[in-house]
Amino acid sequence: MKKLMLSLLTAASMSAAFAQSNTLLLSQTGNGNTTPVTQKGTGNTGAINVKGDNNQVFYTVQGTTTKGDVSSTGNNNQVYLNANAVTGSEVSISQVGDANFSSASLQYGTGNKVSIQQEGNDNSSIANAKGSNNQFSISQLGSENKSSIQYAEGSNNQSSSVQTGTGNFSLDNSFYGSNNQTSIAQTGDYNSVLINRDGSYNTATVDQTGNQNSVNVQQWGENSLTVTQTGLSNSVALTQSGGANAATILQEGNNNKLIPIQPTDLYGMQQGYGNVLNLIQTGDGNVLRFSQVGNNNTATVTQGLH
């Protein structure tokens, strides 16, 4: 009986030790680098690789079977990785260049995935989520680009931002909701995309090529938006509220705009249920002042060279 009790205690001790084990690989090369690390929970794994001078990595993982990888090459870079009370999640951050900033925060969820990749100088990326099964991806190539994905609460959301050039800005901000999808791609200089959202099952796809183009969108409800802009200083400002509203916008050229009817308003309006807008503007200086209120309305507008 004594041998049996000893065997059971030994097995329990080995099982507990195995269950509580976390693994981290840490490598620093250079001068003046700082890497405070906290890893708590069960079965967490990670790797931190820092090359250069005066870099900072703040690394906190508290949860279960969560993976956090950080690679930073260059000087004066900062990385914040914070995963709190998460299970089965993955965070990957990679930076090459100088004075880049990356921050990823996951709170209280399962199965989340975040990927941040930056190459260049003075770029900034932020991805925050509270919920489960969210997938966020940011890729930036160039200098002084900024991307932010902020989901206050929700699950099964997908958001990606790809920016190439200088001084581009993207924000995908969701106050509450699930099953939203966002895709942002910008190539050029000083383009901007702002998406503010409250609700579920919204989709937004924005593709901009050129310089100083802008998209400013609000989505409240279950709506869909596709914007493609090529050229210089094209802009879209639109609010979608209600359900099953859809807008497809193509602008090619320079200084084409979708704006509100009233100069004192900030956004064109699509409000109600089942409304549809199809807009094509080509050439230079075309303007659509737009409002669509009610249900099951359809507007198809073509202006310019076509």
Automatic annotation (TrEMBL):
Superkingdom assignment: Bacteria
Protein name (record): Curlin associated repeat-containing protein
Source species: Nibrella viscosa
InterPro entries, per database record: Curlin_rpt
Keyword tags: Signal
Signal peptide positions on this chain: 1-19
Pfam families cross-referenced by the UniProt entry: Curlin_rpt
UniProt record similarity statement: Belongs to the CsgA/CsgB family.
